[in-house]
Structures are given as C-alpha cells and as structure tokens.
From TrEMBL:
Listed name of the protein: Uncharacterized protein, isoform I
Residue spans of biased composition, Low complexity class: 12-23, 189-214
Organism: Drosophila ananassae (Fruit fly)
Residues of the CUB domain: 295-429, 445-566, 588-716, 731-861, 870-995
Keyword Transmembrane annotated: yes
Disulfide bonds: C1017-C1035
Family annotation (InterPro entries): CUB_dom, LDL_receptor-like_sf, LDrepeatLR_classA_rpt, Non-NMDA_GluR_Accessory, Sperma_CUB_dom_sf
CC annotations in GO: plasma membrane
SUPFAM superfamilies recorded: LDL receptor-like module, Spermadhesin, CUB domain
Length: 1048
C-alpha cells in the first residue's frame, strides 16, 4: 500500500516555492501527464496486437479452413512478450546504456484486450500494415494454427515437435521483414505524395476508388489460394485500408524515427515502450519539470532490512533541456526517526549571506527543499508539511532529524548534464530518546517528568530534533515535578539556539522556578550557552522551548542536557534566616541589599554545622547606590574554619581544597573570578573594605569538611574621595605632607552629583617650614538666585544653601576664614601663609537639589617669605604704589615645576590713621560672575586683625568704574596669586595713601586735620601736605584737589 501511495505521489509534480506553478497549473499538468501515459499504453497495445493478428492471418492462409482467430488469452500472452518486430526495434533502441531520460524498464504487464475492443475504443488506431502482399512475403511452415498460437504465447509445443526457440526465431524473422517492408513502403508513399500536386476533391474520390479496386483485386487473388479463414483477415485489411491514409500520416514521423533513428534512443521508455518515446517528445511542448521513476527514490525501514545507507544526486542527461524535479523520501518504522546527513553539496546559486539559508529568491535554477516535519506517509500531505528551507551553493545543509517518521527532500535542476551534485547518508534511529516523560496532549514535544520515571532520579533532556536543525514555529514544554523535600537540577551540556539579541526576542528557552509559566522566571536563554546549570528553589521546574514562525533561515541544533531530582542539594534556610535573597536558578547563591547603613551576618551553608563537600556558593553584598546615596561594604569575620592543605612549595597556595575568595570591586562575571583580592582558608580572619558599593565572595567547600565561617558586614556611606578617611566613617579626610606631597581631592561621588544633607571636611597639614597650595579645576555648587552677583557668588549673603568654605589653619587652632563660595564661581588659587599649619576646606549641602561639586589639586611646597615671590611691607610712609609683576607688560605664569606664584603686600598706618586704597587700573584673567577666579586672583584684607574674609578680585575693571577701598583698621594686606593654569594678563596698578578720616559731611579745614596733615581733600580725607602736587592723585577717585593750583 505504501509503495502504491509513493508511486502515485511520484507521478504528481510537486514544487513548493514562491516561484512554482499555481494549484490550477499543477492540476493541468496532472491531467496532461495522465492523458500522455494513456495514449502511450493504447498505442503500444494497438501495434503489438495488430502485428500478432497479421502473423496469425498469414499462418491461417497457409493452413486453410479450420483456423480460428486468436482468443483473448492468446493476445494477452503475446503482449507480455513483445513481438519480433518490436523486439528488433527495442534492440536498436537499447544499443546505448540506459539513462534517466529513458530509464530501462522491466517487461511491463499490459491489460489484455481483443482486437475488436481496440478498434471500438480507438477507431483511429486501425493497423496500417494489414496487407495481403506483405503477408505473402512471410513463409513460415507451421502445421496448425494451434501450434502457431502456442509458439507466440511462449508455451512448449510438445504435441508438434517444434521447439519454442525455433518458433520464436522463425516468428521474429518474419515480423522483422514485415516491419522493414512496411517502413519502406510508408516512406516511398510519403515521398510520392510530396512530389505530386494535391488532388482536388474529385481526384481524391477517383484515387480512393482506384485503391479500393486494387485492394479488391488483391483480395480476389489471395482468396483463390487461401482457405476460407483468410476471408476474415481480408475483411480486416479492407477496413484498415479505408483509414490507412490518416493513420500513416499520424504515425509517419515516429515510424521513421524508429526505423532510421534508433541510434538516438538511449533506453526504453518510462513504461517499457521504446518506440513510443519520440511520440512523447514530439507532443511535449511544456517546460514544466519532468519526473521519472529512476529519478525519485524511496528508502523504507523494514524489519530485518538495512537501517542505514547512502543517497546521491541522479545522473541527468537532459539533452532536451527540460527541468527535472526528483523526490527522495525516507520512511522510518514505528518507534523510529530518520537522520539525514549531507557529505557533499555543490548546487548552483549562492545563498544571500554565504551560508545555507532558506531565502527563496537566491536559489532559482538548482536547489534542494527539505521537509523534516512530514506527519503522514501520504505524498499529498507533503504540501501541508512545514517548509524546512531551500538550499543551494556549496555549503551543505546541516544534519536533519525527522520530527515524526519521515523526511522528504525535493531536488530541482534545469541543467543539461549534472553529476556529483550532492551526496549523503541516512539511518533510522530509535525515537525513544526523544520521549522524555509523559506526553502532554495537544503537543508533539511537551512532557511531564517525575522522579519515578528515571533511573537514579536522573535522565536526559533533549530538544525535539537534536542534533539536527530544529524546526520553526514550535512550542515545547517540560514540566519537572519532584517530591516535597527535593530540588531539581538542570545542566545543559550543549545549547545552540538562534541569537536575536540580548533579550532573545526570537527563539528562546525560558526556565521558570515553579510548576508552570506563571511561576517566577529564572531566565531567558538563546544563542550559545556554556556551563548553563540551573536549580529550582523548591521541588518543581518548568522549561519552555519556543521557535518563531518565520522563514527557516537558521540551522541551529537546539539543546541537550541532563536533569536530576535530589534531596542532597543545599538547603536555603541559612540564606532566608539572615536577610539574604536567594538568586533564582543557583544552588546557594545569594545577594544582600543595604537598608541604609545597615549591618548583618553572612554564613557558610549549614553553619554552625560542617558544610556539604563539593559545593560552590556565591555572595553578592550590595550597598546603596542612587542619586542620593552611595555606600561601601566593611566586612570582618567572627568565626572562620576552612581546612587548608600544607604544601612543601611555599610559593604554592595552601587553599587548594576549600577556600573563600573576596573581590573588593564586586565582580559578577565568571571570567573575572580569577582576579580576586583575598583568598582565605585555615583559621584566618581578615577585615576588608570594598572599593565601591559592592563586595563579592565565592565559597568553595572542596572535599575536606569544616565548620565554615560567620562574618559581619556593615554598609558605610561611600564618598569616593581620595585621602585618608576618618575611622568613624564620616565624610572627613586628611591629607598629610609626610604621606603624599601632591594629589587630588573632590566632592563626594564626583563627577556624579554630591549627596544632599552632607557635611564633608578636607584637612591639609604640612610639615614645619611647608605651606600648601590648592588650585580648583572644576566648581559647581548649588546656589540661590544671587549666584551670579556682580561681586561674585561668594560670601554668606550669596551662599546660604550649599556652599564651600576655605580656612587657614594656625597652630593655636584658630582658623581664619578665606571665603565662602557657591554657584560656578570657583575660588582662586590659595597658599597658606607663613606661620600657618595648613588649610581646611568644608562642604555643606542641604536637603534640596544638588550639583556636580568640585575637583581640585593640592601641593605641599617649601614655605616662602612673608612677601612671597614678590611684594613687601610698608610702614611709616605717607603713600605708595603697588603694581603687578612686569607691569605694564603683563604678568606671567609660574615657572616650570611650580604650582603657584604669590606676592604679598602689607601696609601699616600710624596709630589712629587708616589706609585709602585706589585701583587705578586692573585686569586679571577670570570672570567672577560666571566662572570665578581659578587661574589668578587678588585678595584684599581691609583689616588683617579681623576675622572678616578678604575680597577676591579678578576680571577687568571698566574705565568708568571707581574701585576705591578704605581700611577698617591700621593694617591692610594685598595678596596676588597665580597658578599653573595662568595664561597672563595686563595686571594692576594700585595707589595707597595714609589718611585721617574726618568722617562724612563737608570738609572743615583746620578743624580735623592735625598740623602734620594740613591738607584736606575734597572728599574730606586729610592727607599729608607732602603729597600735594606730587603728580599722584592721593585723594581718591574723582578728587584731584591735591593736584590743583600747583606751581610749575
């Protein structure tokens, strides 16, 4: 039954692609093929039977009356063994080896029909060779008609004494001569018809009457020398001659081809009729794919038969340039599947990406279609089977395992000659390997697995067609249900799925920590996975394997692994009881999250009892890390016992069996586990602090048992500030010259935003005869709406939310404020004065919004003089002029290797007097309103004995503005500092004058000025009379009264 079904499918051209014929075209092609085969069968039967009748008529004429026509059984026997004329033609046709275009066929058993049935069914097929003249040429001495019938029927003529071989030889000689003469007469008649003009209707009637008269004369001559039985045959000749012209024209070409062109026939036809092949070729006008039984192949698994073999491409000699389609079908037995492996592959075309993929447009002239999900042996169901991909080029398709019991391969080619196109092997394998558990109804690949179904509670987990390419549009589930005290372990030893991205949007395997897909998801996996081992938290696990319903453009294997139900896996109580969180999918991994500066304990499995051997547990301790918080982890052990192994080689680690590795940066990837910071074993204890918000540990128990460990963790706020942190964990850092001469400092978590509600302190302490310099490179502190004030965003009036303050530290713990800063107004470079211990910086943030903070550099250098690199002390003088270095050419940056340059001027007035300071010209790099004075700055103290901070000045003074200051005490100080960031500018010119302040109001000459200072300026100040008419405006801006009425 299966063979009949497959043969029926072979005769049905099947092409599955976007470029093949439509369903209507397939039906027309089916109809055309059936008609052509029926025509071949009927034509061959007609020739065979009429030739046999011609021989019988000749024999009957020699015997005389008493002969009877051949019965139906005799005609049927004659058709089983072709007559001599046909055998001669077949011999000439088969002189060349058989090929696929004309495959050699065994003797075909044809339907038995009488001559009357043939004439009735095919009126056009009356035999054109029934001529008495031709019959007269055959001289066969046969005793009776019965012996002649027995000879033709290939039976022993025991009663006559004539051997079957002699009979066959005699009959063959007769029919061969008869066939040759008929062919010659037909050819001569055709030539005469071509040379003569076409007769008119009347002429045709006359010729027809003439032929009838000639036939009657011949009949009369024959009847005089034959028995009455010849009359029957004569009537048949008359009937045949009446339609002879039509039949001879129709058969002229094939008969000529059979007689003169037999050398072109390479083998008998598809159904054993060699001389009919030219007729089929002549009628064949369609270019649709041609199929033949030698092209299609079927491999069936039978009991006791071979279970493997090989297959290869057909040898096509396609001289008519017809396209060919061949179907290879592999049918496994019950409980079996088919495995197909390609050893070589060399088809025309090239896939788009250079590998065998299923993109249809790229494989046009020659390709192979694969179907590995054929569910029924009915060939008509192949078109309903999922398409497994179209392949061409030189890269062979990967291994295929049938989803059910069959694999079909369709090969198409339009080559003239094709050899060595592909080669492969097949074998029928046991399907029980893919039956993992209890099948779930409605799915061909879903199972429920329990411990009682496997030996030692373990078994294999395998994808539906592993290791062959898995099908598309598939959903398989695997439900593992263990006992209440068990856990489930899955280990994927081979995992190869299509990788569509890190989130696996296409093909994937999802594993759930529970009995179904509503449980917590452990993970989604695709691509190629290595060392993928998963554990359930409880007694059940659910696996879902899904492939996208798309064009088959991938050939991934799927997966194979093992599963295990066990009561010996680590119990998770030691995690839950200590505020840990079990990491799903692991045996005993856990994570610990901070609750803001919280503390807790970490323990080894089963502590305080001995731990389980050969167990690996990972600990991930996470401090807070968000916009407002950043923590680090402090870890110290209260108990520690992991047996160590002593080695003679001291360079070798003693922790070769069990160990605890600590990673201060919190490595979470497997490839980073070799870069540990500490490896502990024995009875060691260690106090460690993470280098960020995370700390990781890996505990491996080895084969020797111990009690394990108990550790205490503490989450501390992490400021990410370089320097020596305070022991109490507060935001206090110290920078000592003896440990480091230069370095960096920054706000907490810079360049990220600093946290809110924070107070940090930075203390810089130099050695004796040292001073410290600080230069700011970045500055952005949150400020209020007055942050862009003209005078700069500094001072208590401008900065009252977040701010930075700088202090000079003296030995008596008397700190002097240098300034308060906020906004983007960076402090200028600062040097600690001689006699000071160092500098201190404080940062204050409130509970509102935050900013990026600051970054600065510090330098410890040898102490300079009080005047610094330039400057001086002025006392007992009436007036003076202070200019920047290299005035008016412009100041320059410090020398190479120097952090800063500083010039300090101190002016001291007599008791009871003050100082007038007038900035005539001023130009320093910087912008107080926008970016401050980070490169160069001038600081002015109005009273050095006061705690008031100095004024910081930079930028350029407009000509129309007047910068004039009066000291509040007897002494004033000016400090000009440049840094290694200085570019240079014009500088400044300052005029200072000792004055007696008369107070507000109009001047009263002689009332408030002493005799020594007997000149009073228009602004009311009393200055020394010596300064009058000295060329310097000592009265201040807008007041030049001291330079009026001067004698030349």
């Amino acid at each position: 039954m299966a063979s009949a079904q497959i043969r029926h499918f072979y005769n049905t051209p099947t092409t599955i692609s976007s470029t093949t014929t439509t369903t209507r075209q397939l039906l027309q092609q089916q109809k055309h093929t059936n008609k052509r085969k029926q025509f071949q069968n009927d034509t061959f039967l007609w020739h065979t039977q009429t030739q046999s009748e011609s021989v019988a008529a000749t024999s009957t004429g020699a015997v005389g009356e008493g002969a009877t026509p051949w019965p139906e059984a005799t005609i049927g026997a004659a058709t089983e063994t072709p007559g001599p004329a046909i055998a001669a033609t077949s011999t000439a046709a088969t002189s060349k080896p058989a090929t696929d275009d004309a495959p050699a066929s065994a003797t075909t058993i044809w339907p038995r029909r009488t001559t009357d049935e043939i004439v009735t069914k095919h009126p056009r097929m009356q035999h054109p060779l029934a001529s008495s003249s031709a019959a007269a040429t055959c001289n066969i001495a046969v005793a009776t008609a019965t012996e002649q019938q027995q000879c033709i029927a290939s039976t022993a003529a025991a009663t006559t004494g004539i051997s079957e071989q002699d009979c066959r030889h005699t009959t063959s000689t007769c029919l061969s001569r008869l066939s040759s003469k008929v062919s010659q007469d037909s050819t001569n008649q055709q030539k005469q018809q071509q040379q003569q003009p076409q007769p008119q209707p009347k002429q045709q009637q006359a010729q027809r009457r003439l032929l009838q008269q000639q036939g009657a004369a011949r009949d009369s001559d024959a009847s005089t020398s034959t028995t009455p039985g010849v009359g029957i045959f004569t009537d048949m000749q008359k009937f045949a001659r009446s339609i002879f012209p039509l039949v001879i024209i129709f058969n002229l070409l094939p008969l000529f081809y059979a007689g003169a062109g037999a050398a072109h026939l390479k083998s008998p036809g598809a159904d054993g009729e060699p001389w009919m092949q030219p007729v089929v070729a002549y009628l064949e006008v369609s270019s649709r794919p041609t199929k033949s039984p030698k092209c299609d192949q079927t491999f069936v698994s039978r009991i006791g038969g071979p279970q493997n073999g090989s297959f290869s491409a057909p040898l096509l000699h396609n001289h008519r340039n017809h396209s060919r389609q061949c179907l290879y079908t592999f049918l496994a037995g019950p409980g079996q599947r088919v495995e197909v492996v390609f050893k070589s592959f060399n088809l025309r075309g090239s896939p788009p990406d250079g590998s065998a993929v299923g993109e249809l447009p790229s494989c046009v002239h020659e390709y192979m279609d694969i179907y590995s999900e054929v569910q029924s042996s009915e060939p008509a169901e192949l078109i309903n089977s999922p398409f497994g991909g179209r392949y061409c080029g030189t890269i062979p398709p990967r291994r295929r395992i049938s989803m059910y019991r069959a694999v079909a391969i369709s090969f198409f080619s339009n080559k003239n000659v094709s050899t060595d196109l592909f080669e492969g092997t097949f074998r029928f394998i046991n399907a029980s390997e893919y039956e993992i558990g209890i099948p779930i109804a409605g799915s061909p690949c879903s199972y429920t697995i329990t411990p009682s179904m496997s030996v030692n509670k373990t078994g294999a987990l395998i994808s539906p067609t592993y290791p062959g390419a898995y099908p598309k549009d598939m959903s398989c589930t695997y439900q593992f249900l263990g006992e209440s005290n068990q856990r489930v372990r899955l280990e994927f030893r081979d995992f190869d799925l299509f990788f569509g991205g890190p989130h696996c949007p296409f093909d994937y395997v999802k594993v759930y920590d529970g009995p179904d897909n509503s449980s917590a998801l452990i993970g989604t996996y695709c691509g190629q996975q290595r060392n993928l081992v998963l554990y359930s938290s409880e007694s059940s696990l659910f696996v879902h394997f899904y492939t996208l319903p798309r064009t088959a453009n991938t050939q991934n294997r799927g997966f194979k692994g093992i599963y295990e139900f066990s009561e010996s896996f680590v119990k998770l109580d030691f995690i839950r009881e200590n505020d840990g969180i079990h990491i799903r999918g692991s045996e005993c991994d856990q994570k610990i999250l901070s609750k803001k500066e919280s503390t807790g304990f970490v323990l080894s499995p089963n502590y305080p009892y001995p731990y389980i051997p050969k167990t690996v547990c990972r600990y991930f301790i996470y401090g807070m890390q968000d916009a407002q918080h950043l923590e680090r982890v402090r870890l110290e052990f209260n108990a520690f016992n992991i047996p160590k192994v002593e080695h003679k080689d001291k360079s070798e680690s003693n922790c070769t069996d069990g160990y605890l590795k600590i990673y201060l940066k919190g490595q979470e990837t497997a490839d980073a586990y070799d870069k540990f910071d500490y490896e502990l074993c024995g009875n060691e204890t260690q106090r460690v602090i993470s280098e960020g918000p995370r700390l990781a540990m890996v505990f491996s128990s080895g084969e020797l048992q111990g009690r394990g460990f108990k550790g205490k963790y503490t989450f501390e706020t992490e400021y990410k500030i370089p320097g020596t942190a305070a022991p109490d964990g507060t935001c206090s850092f110290t920078y000592v010259s003896s440990s480091k001469k230069r370095g960096e400092l920054n706000s907490p978590r810079y360049p990220s935003n600093y946290p809110s509600d924070t107070n940090c302190s930075y203390l810089f302490l130099g050695e004796a005869n040292e001073q410290v310099t600080i230069v700011f490179d970045h500055f952005k502190i949150k400020a209020d709406n007055n942050a862009n004030a003209t005078a700069g965003a500094y001072g208590s009036g401008a900065c009252f939310e977040d701010w930075l303050e700088m202090y000079v530290v003296y030995r008596d713990n008397n700190d002097r404020l240098l300034g308060r800063y906020c906004g983007q107004t960076a402090p200028g470079p600062v040097e600690s004065p001689r006699g000071a211990v160092g500098l201190r910086i404080t940062l204050h943030t409130d509970q509102e919004s935050v900013a990026s903070g600051f970054k600065a550099r510090y330098f410890f250098e040898s102490a300079k003089s009080d005047a610094g690199d330039c400057g001086g002390n002025f006392s007992n003088q009436d007036s003076g002029i202070i200019t920047s270095p290299n005035w008016p050419a412009g100041y320059k940056a410090p020398g190479r290797g120097m952090a800063s340059n500083a010039c300090n001027w101190v002016m001291t007035a007599r008791p009871g007097y003050k100082l007038s300071i007038h900035f005539e010209q001023f130009g320093l790099e910087g912008d107080p309103a926008n970016r401050g004075c980070p490169a160069a700055v001038l600081r002015l103290w109005m009273n050095v004995d006061s705690d008031q901070p100095p004024l910081e000045l930079c930028g350029e003074k407009p000509p129309v503005e007047h910068w004039h200051y009066t000291s509040t005490g007897q002494t004033a100080r000016i400090s000009f500092t440049t840094s290694d960031k200085t570019v240079g500018a014009q500088g400044f010119r300052i005029v200072w004058t000792e004055i007696q302040d008369s107070g507000p109001g109009p001047p009263s000459v002689g009332l408030h000025c002493e005799s020594t200072y007997h000149f009073q300026c228009g602004a009311g100040y009393c200055i020394s009379d010596k300064l009058r008419c000295d060329g310097v405006k000592n009265c201040g801006p807008g007041d030049d009264t001291d330079e009026l009425h001067c004698e030349s």
